[in-house]
Amino acid sequence: MNDEAPFRVGLRADDVSAAAAFYEGLGFERIGRISSPDGRTVMAILRRGDLQLLVDALTGMPFPDSDRERGTLAGPRGLGVVIGIAVDDVRATVDYCRSAGCEVTTETADAPWGERYAEVLDPYGYAWKFFKVLPDPPHDTLHSAYDSWFG
What we know:
Low-confidence stretches: none
Shape: elongated
Mean pLDDT: 92
Largest sheet: 4 strands, mixed
């Protein structure tokens, strides 16, 4: 891994191999993995453009015992964080996610601020926003978002 990604997101999953396979379906490429002595994958490293995902096992990693770690283990994981990635086809991505057991929290829609988007909660507890900028988005996307929400 000589070409390090400028953005990294670490996720925790009870089944690293299954989670990595799911994220590969979102266009991530698996570029590395670490197995425990018993052969179980405890870390998968995936990359999609400038974003690198580090998928770590919930147990079996040498994370320090701390309040934060105990909270991570108890869950819910990813609370308050949404990972947004641009995709070529929002509807097709949502269809893939739905077939993989995701909960679709926002169906595909065209937003007044100039993007087609949808949001899902993946099988590992993480929220994702998939988006594609629409042709001819409004000049002032912030004003358009404000008007949509509060206008």
